[in-house]
Structure prediction request, 425 residues.
Amino acid sequence: MLRILHLADIHLGGGLLHGRLNPLTGRNTRLEDFITALNRCIDQALSEPVDLVLFGGDAFPTATPEPAHQEEFARQFMRLAQAQIPVVFLVGNHDQYNRGGGGASLNIYTALEVPGFIVGSTLTTHRISTRAGVVQVVTLPWLHRSAFLTKEATRGLTLEEVDQLMVERLRVILEGEARKLDPELPTILMAHVMVETATWGVERNLAVGRGFTVPVDLLARPEFSYVALGHVHRHQFLHLDPPVVYSGSIERVDFSEEKEEKGFMRVDLVKEGSYRAECRFVPLPARPFCTVKIDASTSEHPQETILAALRRVKVTDAVVRVIYQIHAHQNDSLDLAPIRQALEPAFSYQLVPQMTSQLAQPRIPTLGESATLDPMAALHQYLDNQDHLKALKDDLLKAACTLMDDSTDLTLDQQPPRPGQLRLL
Prediction:
């Protein structure tokens, strides 16, 4: 049995705007959250211990991380090297400089030749010796359209056609790698990609125009016992046999990940004729994020409305965002001191006021200043544009008709009348 820990998207040094300086350590408190999460992953790998660690890419938010962040990352993974546990680092989009044309931050481990550290910067197969035997790992790093756009074969093609061409070429290349595999050995595919069937979050916006999506069937080949994915921050299974899995990120980056559980994957490859993957998601106690939305614009006491809403939510040790709606004339009477005091137990917080205008009112089509509709025709058109009054439309028209002329009634089953042509019975 081969025991594996699969994690991805560490983004060490990301989300620092939500933190503050820790005077005891001199580090940003959010950076400490990310270091703590990574430390827990490495602790788990050492305590079992596992035979292999797979990192699915995006070590830092950028390809030029601060030296202090590089040092913390290296310090944690060197614990695995000291324990003689091999690690495969897959190059993700955030690890690449200048869209893949200027190297990658993780390539430093190739240059240093750290024992047991393998960097997957190209699409190739690595044969790795572990305490449980040899394993084959196929690495598929993040690929850019720019690798194909300059070629003659793509001249005149749309981006969609280029994407399809890339998928077709990837299929051929993966087929070639699959034919070289030893069927007697366990085999893993690592890929930093966007998969078409995945539920995407903020990473979709960050990579828009730069990446391309691949169908899940391109990855879910029978030659692979397990497919370890990186790039999408939400943990999810995309295929069960073989398991095609995004481990997700290990710590929340921003409010777009507020509802997502964070953690890593533990995978056992068990020999049953061929190798079968038994996997489970291990959650981590990530920093909670909390958004509180409050409409105080209709309240006579907006400050108390905001305070009452805050008392109903748990803000202790959370990164909190309070979005409150008020009218401009209410702003002067709002004292933020009690609100800030109520948020003191939070890890950090931000107040986001949204001013509501009393002047902006929806306009009904054809009811402009030059309209000459008679009262009943105007009422008919008004009710046609008020969805919340649809159930009452007939009764309102009858009541209005009675008020205007007790002897008349509107024919309700006909088309709306034209101006000045009210149809009567």
The longest helix spans residues 159-180. The chain has twelve helices and 17 strands. The longest strand covers residues 263-272. The two ends are 86 Å apart (CA to CA).
